[in-house]
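Appendix B. One record, verbatim.
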Amino acid sequence: MTNPMLTAIARKETTKGELNQLRKAGKIPAVVYGGGQPATHILLDEKEYLKAMAGASESSIIDMEIEGKKSRAFVKARQRNTLTNKIIHIDFLEVISGRMLTAKVPIHLVGSPVGVREGGILENPAHEILVECDPDHLPERIDIDVSELHANHSIHVRDIPAIDKVKIVSSSDLVVAVVKYAKAEVVATPVVEAVAAVPGAAPPAGAPGAAPGAAPGAAAAPAAEKKSEKK
């Protein structure tokens, strides 16, 4: 894959107000360091940067040209405006062949887990891991096959197959994929007490035919007997 290409211009250290004016003009202040030389302050065109980096990951090596001088670097850190989410500053780490570097590499899950077909849900707790390698061997992403992952099972960093010329630095206990069963929703069912139909017994309180305020199980009052007529 062809590396993203960026063209930048050198800049002097400026005040906060001057930096804000540059941002309003569509520029992104940045700094490049790590190549064995003093840090270089640069300006990037915002539109060019976003276009060049579309689809690229933070571990992508970038070809840079700063006023005719060519170098390679990758994004070490980005600062964003908390309100607009626009990038307001970028730190680039220059890379040199033969000099080891440490970088974050995205995790890409491949396949359909057995556990999902059994009714589970696939989760990806860690989206990237830390690696150490020569810049020429830095992977853009690490593919992990989850096809044989069963429900209530997980894949840890220690389960990732060895990568040629790349050392994984992240903790071996870090979980990168897990299939969990979805919790069943419990629906409460109302309990109805059955009352045996006993001749002469009053219905429970609140039941059809029950007298208001009648106590449960209370028997109906017997009807008054008629006095016999005197002959």
